[in-house]
Design brief:
Helix content is about 30%, strand content about 35%. The protein has four helices and seven strands.
């Protein structure tokens, strides 16, 4: 489904999964956000199935806009990014546990570096690679830590760049 909203300067491309829940990508027609692609999901499906749906949506977006025109992907909070599937959040926690202690003053940069080093978003990387786009976490904010002080969640932003070699 494609739902333009001129009042907000955005278009939402979405699909309803077999669980009757929606996943979507939003593209913007506003100058400040025109190169941003926003992903949202309230799905209860496993990550793999959600990413299959995401590929269908990206194929649809590609009919309207070149995917390499987007420079940023926003997925919101890591723990909620894929509905009830918290794979990326669990991977972040595991990676952070094995990392050196993180100084609170550098927590955003440290979490970004840990997530990129341990490639906690492997499936997203592979999805975008099919479209000739390289993806990398460019920034995180509002990091949450568990009772042991280990990061498990953050608002996550990815940079999208044209990829020379497709995988």
């Amino acid at each position: 489904m494609v739902k333009p909203n001129p009042q907000y300067g955005e278009t939402v491309y979405s699909l309803i999964g077999s669980d009757s829940k929606k996943i979507s990508f939003t593209v913007y027609q506003t100058e400040i956000n025109e190169k941003v692609l926003r992903f949202r999901s309230d799905s209860t499906l496993p990550l793999k199935e959600q990413l299959q749906m995401a590929a269908i949506i990206l194929d649809r977006i590609k009919k309207d806009l070149p995917l390499n025109s987007f420079k940023t992907l926003s997925i919101g909070r890591l723990v909620l990014a894929f509905g009830t599937d918290d794979t990326f959040s669990r991977r972040l926690t595991a990676a952070a546990r094995s990392a050196s202690p993180i100084p609170f003053a550098r927590i955003n940069n440290a979490v970004r570096d840990i997530a990129n080093r341990d490639m906690i978003y492997l499936e997203l990387r592979d999805l975008f690679a099919k479209y000739g786009i390289a993806i990398k976490i460019s920034a995180v904010e509002k990091v949450l830590v568990n009772e042991d002080g280990v990061p498990y969640d953050c608002i996550t932003w990815f940079s999208l760049t044209e990829q020379k070699d497709r995988i």
